[in-house]
Structure prediction request, 363 residues.
Amino acid sequence: MVVSLLLVGAGLAALLVGGTAVVSSSVTLAHRLGISTAVIGLTVVAFGTSAPEMAVSVLASIQGSPAIAVGNVFGSNIFNILVAIGAAACIAPVVLDPAVLRKEVPICLAANLVVIGFAITGGRINTWEGFDLVIGLFIFLIWCVRNARQDPQSSSNPESDRVPLAGILFTVGSALVLSRTAIGWDWAITGLLIGTVLVWFLEPDPDTNRPPASTTLWIYLAAAISILITGADLLVRGATDIGLGLGISEPVIGLTVVAIGTSAPELATSIVAARRGELGLAVGNALGSNLFNLLGVLGLAALVRAVPVEPRFVIIDGWLAFGSVLLLPILARRAGVIERQHGKVMVGCWVVYTLSLVVIALT
Prediction:
């Protein structure tokens, strides 16, 4: 249990460091490339923060645990909207770009319906359907890049915030401790240390007016995303061990423990973005991650092996994921803004949903 708690602590510290670095480098890149932070969030950041979901679901499919693969996707998508965007709204009212409401939200809803349709018709997502989902993701990415435009509400000061020194020290220290325990020097510990060192040495200085080179920015962003991925992996390991110790079933673990852990990068990124006033990045990251999960993660998992879908995912959780996205235009229908009270309601809905899953699983 001590090791599990240390894994959770190390994962949370890594998410803080990685989230701060991802937002800083993403905003700077958006200004350098002349596109909006929302586009960066929908593409580069969304792909990076969805990597934990992809790794977990594909691995679960290979190992014959489809309930975790599907539960991870739907649970992560519910978390991304209700908690990642809801928590950002609790920090500052989230202004939804009308273009996002007209384009990205309908695309996300359509992708959700396609996945549910595939699951209803055959009780699973087969290889050809997985291929169709992956092709749909590539089409979306091409469309997104071609329609990239400069966001007039982007921050006028793209310089980086300092990555918290305490988070770096705790991350490195806990990683070194974990390397001396039963965890050993596996890929997560090694990647976490390498990524943290790169972020420390390549971090742009916000006190200077000299912008970093583009190559340095891309390396910095890649290192930051690697910290998010490895931090999420450590968090999932610790939280899953704790969940299994409490006797929680596999589908519920996928919907709750694994989904929370793999969605932690989206939450960390959205909170840091909200604190910096880059709300377009927060919304774009959440919606983009949902699309990557539905089209890329489930698509790749199905390409590896046909993914059976349990009835509860079609009857309950898939529609809850659909409804959480539909909630965005409903809450923002008047002024195009998700207010703080809306954010509290969204987070509260997720808490009720999660508690109900856990209570039912333990009874």
In short: The longest helix spans residues 2-33. The radius of gyration is 19 Å. The chain has 13 helices and four strands. The longest strand covers residues 94-95.
